[in-house]
């Protein structure tokens, strides 16, 4: 049996992520990235989908992972 292929998600709200400190453009890009980047846990879901569908995932809910991506967005990367 082969592992499922990564499929991006289209979540507009990410549980546990406070977007208030970002501009609208930064928020949009952050949500885009969380929907387009696979969760490092290996579930082949996006970081956003993993946070929504697998709330107990030790990697998908990693605060450091989302904070790293948020910091990159603040810097405009």
Describe this structure in words.
It is built from 3 helices and no strands. The chain has helices spanning 24-36, 47-53, 63-74. Helix 1 (24-36) crosses helix 3. The longest helix is centred in the middle third of the chain and has 13 residues, at 24-36. The chain is elongated and about 45 Å long. The model has no long low-confidence stretch (mean pLDDT 84).
Short description:
The chain has 3 helices and no strands.
Biggest sheet statistics: none
**Estimated radius of gyration:** 12 Å
Helix content class? 40-55%
Total of helices: 3
**What's the oligomerization state?**
single chain
Order of helices and strands: HHH
Coarse morphology: elongated
Unreliable spans? none
Number of strands: 0
Distance between the termini: 37 Å
Q: Which structural class do the helices and strands define?
A: mainly alpha
Q: Report the portion of residues in β strands.
A: under 5%
Q: What is the mean pLDDT?
A: 84
């Amino acid at each position: 049996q082969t592992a499922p292929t990564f499929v991006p998600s289209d979540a507009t709200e990410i549980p546990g992520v406070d977007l208030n400190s970002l501009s609208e453009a930064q928020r949009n890009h952050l949500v885009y990235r969380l929907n387009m980047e696979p969760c490092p846990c290996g579930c082949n879901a996006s970081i956003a989908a993993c946070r929504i569908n697998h709330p107990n995932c030790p990697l998908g809910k990693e605060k450091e992972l989302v904070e790293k991506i948020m910091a990159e967005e603040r810097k405009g990367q």
